[in-house]
Amino acid sequence: MLGINNINMVTIALILIFLYPLIRGFLFKFSSYDLKSDINEINRSISFILALFLGIYFGRKVFIQHDSGIYKRIYTSIPSDFLNYIESNTLIIYAVIIPLIILIIYKIIKLSLEIINCLTVYPMLDIIEKSLSSKGNFFRRLTGLVFQLPKAICYLLLVTLALNILSMFSTNAKLNKYLEASKPYNIMCKEAIIPITNSTIAKKLPSIIDNSFKIVIKQGESKEIAPGKVNNNDRTVVYYNGVTLDQGVKSNDEINKFSRSIVSKEDTTKGKAKIIYNWIGKNIAYDHDKANKVLNNDFNVQSGAIYTYDTRKGICFDYSCLYVAMCRANGIKVRLITGEGFNGVSWVSHAWNQVYLPEEQKWINVDSTFYRGGNYFNSQRFQLDHKNAQIAGEW
User: Residue 204 to residues 59, 195, 235, 368: CA-CA distances in angstroms?
Assistant: First the structure.
């Protein structure tokens, strides 16, 4: 028998939200008048869902990616003063610009659906009600249940989307834990929410499977203490996926020689850092098998820069270690950062890098693990899906 601690409140809420309109449809039977009211409500829900997806999609394409085609042309046609303002205030895109786009699309879709329903659906419902008048109560109840199915799906999508957006900005660890463990929520996000809201970007992102990046702090004679900030005690050792940071970023002559060769024609630090980012992103594959092992606390795996370079695969910590090694080979100041990344469903433990640009006198964020998901080299999107950054090491 399941204990109360095993009950997932998110899963229960999603099930009840889905069942409510179905039960209501069964109890109140089929009614043309009631169904027309429900259809109006469904129209509003569908219009809102489509407007939300399309608004987020086009808003991201124009104001965050804008890397090619019509989106780039639209972006470059916007006054430079306004662009400078939104680039320095990224949240304005999600708080003001995208909601305005959503509102406009919502009005257009809602009006279109109302016209279609008046011409086609409503007359058909009147005909169905006449034909059902001679049927028994159970058949009419069953028909009422079936006709409530679109409404149940709309409710489920809306609530899942709301939870998905909330999880991006929420700092509630308990909520994140519920979301991460809820199978219905994860299925809805992966099958419906992520593919539409993030389009091809989310599909190309490697699966940061749950918390497949583990930090263990040990003190003295392998005495384990709670994860947290690193103790300044000299006897404290921090293990990242089973290896120390020094072991992880350790390089060799082959890596050093290759790292210098691929940036030999570039003069600026930023240019060299970008070349290294591109090479790792294109040539290193995400190791899903290793991620699953680490997730299950199996640290009998090899990690770090050398292993990743030799095998051409790894997980976030390995990507970050190799980036450190390749930057150090070129005399570039670099950091390894630990924190949390948003995988489209919930926040999970993650690792990335920062590089110092002496020409601009600043540190910039770099995430080669997310390379296939878009531009994560000094990108304004960084603050949207990375948080709680802590410097694990600097060289």
Answer: 19, 10, 42, 13
Whether 231 shows a pLDDT value over 90: the answer reads no
Q: Could you give the residue range(s) of every CATH 3.10.620 domain in the chain?
A: 215-394
Which three-class secondary structure state does DSSP give residue 255? Answer: helix
Architecture of the domain made up of 215-394 = Roll (3.10)
Contact 68, 361 (CB under 8 A): no
CB 64 within 8 A of CB 74: no
How many angstroms separate the CA atoms of 53 and 59, rounded?
10
- Asked if residues 284 and 312 have their Cβ atoms less than 8 Å apart, the reply is yes
Distance CA 97, CA 164 (A): 20
Tokens of 270: 């930023």
Measured CA to CA, the distance from residue 365 to residue 90 in angstroms comes to 15
**DSSP secondary structure letter of residue 231:** P
Query: Is the pTM value of this prediction over 0.85?
Result: no
CB 269 within 8 A of CB 357: yes
198/375: higher pLDDT: 375
Q: For residue 59, count other CB atoms closer than 10 A to its CB.
A: 18
Distance, CA of 75 to CA of 62 (rounded, Å): 6
Distances 155 to 18, 41, 184 between C-alpha atoms, Å: 7, 11, 14
Angstrom distance (rounded) from CA 205 to CA 374: 8
